[in-house]
Amino acid sequence: EVFDDLAFGDTIRRDLPAALLGEDVAEETAPGPAADVLRLRDAAALSSLLGEEDAPLSLDLVEDVRGGALLGLATPEQAGAAALGALDSEASELLGAALEGSRELRIADVPALRERLAENGYRLGDGVRDLALESFVLRPGARSYDTEALAADLAGASFEPKPRKPAESTLKKESAETRAEHVARAEDRLASAVSALHPAAAELADRIEAAPWARSILDDLERPLQRVLETMHTRGIAIDHAALQSLRDEFEGFVAQAKREAGEIVGEEVNLASPKQLQVVLFETLALPTTRKISSGHSTDAESLTDLMESLDPDSAGHRFLSWLLRFREMSKLTGYLVGLDKEMDTGSRVHTTFQQTAAATGRLASTEPNLQNIPVRTSEGQRIRDVFVAGEGFESLMTADYSQIEMRIMAHLSEDEGLIEAFRSGEDLHNFVASRVFGVSPDAVDPAMRSKTKAVSYGLAYGLSAFGLSRQLRISRAEATALRDGYFERFGGVRDYLHRSVEKARETGYTETILGRRRYLPDLTSDNRQRRENAERVALNSPIQGSAADLIKLAMLAVEERMREAGLRSRMLLQVHDELVLEVAPGEVEQVREIVEDGMDSAYELSVPLEVGIGVGRTWREAAH
């Protein structure tokens, strides 16, 4: 969970053994011998593999540096593989009929495979079964959900580490025989993996049968949502390319200015992207106080340098250098984001982000290529990036919609705290109301600092933040943070009791639950390792709230998409980013869309406190903010 919060989740899941992630590890067995793998070079071989029309078929498509797109196919009795581009017309036609037929297709990550197959002229029928999605619902937080991971974790298959990608020079020197051997080994590996999807599918079916909650989450939420997300991916969102280029030029100018100004302060040109050079400039040339010790010297990360800068005289050379350095980093990051957007645009000036359902253990969606959740919005320059996202041709505006303070409303619902419930039902400003209670003053006497501190406590509790974490966030002492949290609990005892109850209940049952019954198993709650146990306790605190918020926005998306379709509107839903929906509105439909969105989100789930939906409309994503 810590790694998910830091956006390292996928990397950690790939690189750490399952046992270190608290997962059950299946007994490993070797994959089938290569001699058993059919080489699907022609229609006869493919027909032999496909067998009966009602036999389930597992498949995957991978890119091989030597063989191109390699297709792996398997029935429960036979596995095979081939370079997709090498299939003759008869075999290609036979494959297309099998994929579009009525047989069950067992796949890890249906949307990704559907898109890759479509690029090669193939369609998937209605019998698809996404084993990654099933596994995610049952085992959130697993290291990976790709074909090999499912084969290993659920069917006991084992695979050698993936070979490194050879250098271009190596490939050029390879003989045809050597190349063919490498491709054959890649085909063997792929065939073994897709073959193991059949016992994996049986294992998942048994687990789902024994877990009615999982079937409900899959049938009523995740599977219907998957098709909606695929449709949203296909739609994409329009980019004003001229505005993007203009903003990129402006930001690149800021980068150059920051680099120039920093160099003038120390009297030499400095590579601001080099930690090694920065250590010399900061701690030798400028003789600044050293930051925390790391293996390569002293830290030059943003937090360390911000703390250092705030300790210096604003007029000092060190303060001015650090200010330009941090400016350089910020503007370089924003410029890089614009460069990435430019690369991701299609010929119609739209970008098509991929929504990931299995990326976050809490159930929240993630987006990749491009990552639209990564747009910085806390600075004015970061917010301007949203100005390049616009309504496309034939549409008049963008609409944004999100829930107001959804985590706190869920907290009020789950904790049944009378104070929080009163705050939401009264319609008063939540954080002002809470601050007045915590600090014992009238609402009119609450100042911005009080409001900011209690807001941090409220959301910190929803995210399982400790007193230490709160002190770091607010830049106050740990003692003050503890006193602030204790004062909060004194006034909102229902929240305190709920949080304590959540951890203890999870320790007893082994899992947490969302409002829809989605479970997250936490075996480390009973670990002898203190660090792992405390991390699991933090997860037990935030998972019901974060997971319930994820469930709620997903229900809303299903409702909005269905009602828009039933109304026959041209307007359409494009994005879901941080629980915010972004829609493209057709001429003359804005009021009807507003009504559908507001009603669909408001009625998604009945809480003990009212849901509040904020809606904005504008030409750009930024203008549509509310």
TrEMBL record:
Q: What is this protein called?
A: DNA-directed DNA polymerase
Q: Which organism is this protein's natural source?
A: Brachybacterium paraconglomeratum
Q: Which GO terms describe its biological process?
A: DNA-templated DNA replication; double-strand break repair
DNA-directed DNA polymerase family A palm domain sequence ranges? 382-589
Region entry Disordered, spans:
157-177
Alphabetic keyword roster: DNA replication
CDD domains referenced in this protein's UniProt entry, alphabetically: DNA_pol_A_pol_I_C
What Pfam families does the database record attribute to this sequence? DNA_pol_A
Q: Which InterPro entries match?
A: DNA-dir_DNA_pol_A_palm_dom (IPR001098), DNA/RNA_pol_sf (IPR043502), DNA_polymerase_A (IPR002298), RNaseH_sf (IPR036397)
Lineage of the source organism?
Bacteria, Bacillati, Actinomycetota, Actinomycetes, Micrococcales
Q: What EC numbers are recorded for this enzyme?
A: 2.7.7.7
- Note the SMART domains from the entry: POLAc (SM00482)
Keyword tRNA processing appears in the UniProt entry: no
Family from the record? Belongs to the DNA polymerase type-A family.
Molecular-function annotations in GO: DNA binding; DNA-directed DNA polymerase activity
Please give the catalytic activity noted in the UniProt record: DNA(n) + a 2'-deoxyribonucleoside 5'-triphosphate = DNA(n+1) + diphosphate
Query: Which residue stretches does the UniProt record annotate as biased composition, category Basic and acidic residues?
Result: 161-177
